[in-house]
Amino acid sequence: MNVPPTTIYLGLDLAWSERNPSGLAAAWGTPSGAHLIVRPHHLKTTAEIVATIRATCGDAPAILAIDAPLLVPNETGRRLAEAELAAAFRQYHAGPHPANRQLLRRYGGLRGEEIIAALASDGFCYTPTIESGGGGRLIVEVFPHPATIVLFGLPRILQYKARQGRSLVSRRHELRRYLDLLGSLIHADPPLIGVDRIWEKVDLSDTGATALKAIEDEADAVLCAYIALYGHRWGAARCRSFGTVDGGAIFTPYWYEQKTPAAPINQG
C-alpha cells in the first residue's frame, strides 16, 4: 500500500499593497488530514512572505493557496475567471473583485506574479488546479467567499468584511460565525486539526475595526490553507477551476451532489 508523502499546506491572504498586512497560515499532513503547524500571523513585504514560506516548507512537498490575483495578463477590465465565478455564485453574492494590471499597479504592483517568480527557484510552479493526491510544489489562486458557501452550506456569504452599510456590531457577529465554522473543520473530510483552538478565547464584543480586520486576515489565511488540503484530498471530484490556463484561474471547492459539476477549466 502506497502511503502519500507529508505535504505542507499554506494559506496566504495576500494584501494588494505592502502597506497592508497579509495573513499566513500553514498545516502539515496528507490528503486524508492535516495539523495546523503555523498559527495565522501577519507579514507585510513580499520579501518577508517569500522568506517565511521558504523557512516553513524546507524541502517538503507543498501547496500554497493564495487569495489574490496571481496570473493577470489583461491590462484593463476583468479576467474570465472573475466573470465565470461571479456567474456561478451570483445568488450567494460571492463574486470576486475584477483584477487587471492597471488596477494592481495602482495599489503597488503585481504581487502575485512576484511571489510566483521568487519561488520558482524553490521548485514552486503556478497551477490552475489541484489534483487529488498529486505531488510537487504548487501555487494556486483561491477565493474564500465561494469556498465558505460550499464547505459550510451557507445560503449567502458571511458579511464580516468592512463594506458600506455594515455596522461594526454586525461584522463582529458574522466574524464570530466564521471563526466557529472554521473550528468545525476538525470534523470535516479531510479534517484540519488544531484550528478549533485558535480563536476559542477571543472575545469580539469590544473589538475595534483595526483588530477586527487583523482577525479577518488570519481567518482567511486558515481557510486558504484548508482549500489547499481539500483540493489535495478531492481534486476534480469536489472542486473546479474558473478561468483559463493562460488567462488566470481561480480554484475552489464546488458542489458534488446538490449541483451538477461544471465542465473542466478551459485550455485557452
Question: Could you walk me through the main structural features you see in this protein, from its secondary elements to its overall organization?
Answer:
The chain is α/β, with parallel strands linked by helices. It has one domain (7-253). Helices cover 33% and strands 21% of the residues. The chain has helices at residues 46-57, 80-88, 101-107, 111-119, 144-152, 168-183, 209-234, and strands at residues 7-13, 22-30, 33-43, 62-67, 124-126, 137-141, 192-193, 239-244, 248-253. The strands form 2 sheets. It has a 7-stranded mixed sheet. Strands 8-9 form a two-stranded antiparallel ribbon. The longest helix is centred in the last third of the chain and has 26 residues, at 209-234.
What labels describe this entry?
single chain; 268 residues; alpha/beta; 7-stranded mixed β-sheet; two-stranded antiparallel ribbon; 9 strands; 33% helix; 21% strand; globular
Q: How would you summarize the topology of this molecule?
A:
Blueprint: E1 7-13, E2 22-30, E3 33-43, H1 46-57, E4 62-67, H2 80-88, H3 101-107, H4 111-119, E5 124-126, E6 137-141, H5 144-152, H6 168-183, E7 192-193, H7 209-234, E8 239-244, E9 248-253
Parallel strand pairs: 1-4, 3-7, 4-6, 5-6
Antiparallel strand pairs: 1-2, 2-3, 8-9
Helix pairs in contact: 1-4, 6-7
Question: What's the Cα radius of gyration?
Answer: 17 Å
The number of helices is 7
Helix content: 25-40%
Q: Give the strand tally.
A: 9
From the N-terminal CA to the C-terminal CA, the straight-line distance is 38 Å
* Total number of distinct structural domains: 1
Spell the H/E element sequence. EEEHEHHHEEHHEHEE
Biggest sheet, spatial arrangement of strands: 5-6-4-1-2-3-7
- Biggest sheet, open or closed, and with what strands and sense? 7 strands, mixed
- Determine the mean pLDDT: 92
Query: Which residues form runs of ≥5 with pLDDT under 50?
Result: 259-268
Strand content: 15-25%
Shape: globular
Which structural class do the helices and strands define? alpha/beta
